[in-house]
Amino acid sequence: MAEELKSRKEVPEKLTWDLSRIYATEADMLRDAEKMERLTSEIVEKYKGQLNTPEQIEECVTAYRQVYELMTLTASYCDLAVSVDYYDNYNQERYGRISRLNAKLGSSLRRSFRKPLPSATATGISCRISCGTSLTGCIRRRSGLSPH
Which pTM value belongs to this model? Predict the structure, then answer.
């Protein structure tokens, strides 16, 4: 006879994801979700139309990385909870909320920075790239210097 599918609550804890390795509590995850919303608004407000120097670009990308890290952590926390028990409505709803929030914030950032960078910054950007900054890929894409 086939074994019946168990809900997460019925599975021994040692066989489920240890979400506390990402966030100690759901409240901690929700605080980071609020933080990424705030940071996204700050990035758009501070940098939209203002990426005129390599320094501004580097500051913006550094701030974006922080938002991206929070997006990754919050999404992973919710996704792993769902992956253990797809029938848990609470986890499904939470995952949906965080997924929609991440999509909204990502879209806001992409819309705000679609314009190519001013050509006046090309020399500074080329210098930054040749210096081996960790932001090389992003700077190349935004400056139009990417070979692809």
Answer: 0.75
The alpha carbon torsion through 97, 60, 116, 99 (nearest 10 deg) reads -10
Instruction: Tell me, yes or no, whether 28 lies in a domain.
Output: yes
Per-residue pLDDT tens listing for the chain (148 residues): 577 777 767 778 887 889 999 999 999 999 999 999 999 999 999 999 888 888 888 899 899 999 999 999 999 999 999 988 888 899 999 999 999 999 999 999 988 887 766 654 555 555 454 444 555 555 555 555 555 4
Q: Is residue 137 part of a domain?
A: yes
Evaluate whether 84 touches 60 at the Cβ level (below 8 Å).
Answer: no
Sequence-ordered list of residues with C-beta below 8 angstroms from that of 46, at least 6 positions apart, any chain:
60, 63
Note whether residue 110 is domain-resident. Answer: yes
On whether residue 15 sits in a domain, the answer given is no
Provide the residue range defining the domain that includes 72. 21-143
- Number of domains within the chain: 1
User: For residues 104 and 140, what is the distance between their CA atoms, to the nearest angstrom?
Assistant: 25
Residue 77 CB coordination number (10 Å)? 24
